[in-house]
Amino acid sequence: MGPFDYCAGRRTLLKAGFALGIELTLATASPGQENPATIRPREGDLLVRDEDSSTSPLTPADIPLGGPQLMAWPMDPATKALRSGTRFNRVMLVRLDTAQLTEETRSRSADGVVAYTAICTHSGCEVVDWTSDAQQLVCACHNSRFEPRDGGKVVDGPAPRMLPALPLKIVEGKLVVAKPFTARIGFVQD
Question: Does pTM top 0.70 for this prediction?
Fold first, then answer.
């Protein structure tokens, strides 16, 4: 191993440790106590629109059919604690015609509403763009494109894997988290 290989390996290790340290710091309110704002979405959590101070729970009718996506946060229904303390909890909601969804995607949807992490699996940028013509989610950083009708699969760009999905259900007319994310939220570090 040459001196440059050693430095590159060390640099990668330091970057990974730094990223882990940040996430651990964000996820810990104090020793022995979880911070409700950083807990990952849990079964039964409601979804509320990003930047909505009223924190009104969303219904399928609140999501425009055919896009664009709407950004949301999970909220504990009992305590009303918004899980907005880490960007890893930010969720994209898209409402599509259920006939266009694959069987697996349909099983995780609620009246055509599908939910995915807003974190791109390539380098951690936020997937906040939408193409109306192709009805795809797009990461503006490196132009990775994801297919919301087929489990968030990568259809173009450098992203190495599909977007983790957040299974939904409808309870009393409101969008509710049915299960945790389908995969670990994370990205490739160069």
Answer: yes
Q: With CA atoms as reference, report the closest residue to 186 among 76, 75, 36, 23.
A: 23
Residue whose structure tokens are 């229904």: 77
The CA-CA-CA angle for residues 137, 141, 147, to 5°, reads 20
Tokens at 103, concatenated:
């069987």
Could you tell me which residues are beta bridge partners of residue 138?
Answer: 129, 145
Residue 169 backbone phi and psi in degrees, to 5: -150, 170
Q: From the CA atom positions of the chain, what is the Rg in Å?
A: 18
What six digits make up the tokens of 77? 């229904």
CB 138, CB 155: distance < 8 Å: no
Element (H, E) at 108: helix 103-108
- The two tokens of residue 119 are 């974190």
Contact, 99 vs 112, CB < 8 A? no
The burial of 129, by beta-carbon neighbours within 10 Å (0-12 exposed, 13-18 middle, 19 or more buried), is given as middle
pLDDT tens digits, 63-115: 999 988 899 999 999 999 999 999 999 999 999 999 999 999 999 999 999 99
CA atoms within a 13 Å half-sphere pointing along the CA-CB vector of 42: 11
Where does 87-143 show beta strands of DSSP type E? Answer: 91-95, 113-117, 127-131, 136-139
Instruction: Please give the C-alpha separations between residue 120 and each of 164, 170, 185, in angstroms, as whole numbers.
Output: 9, 26, 9
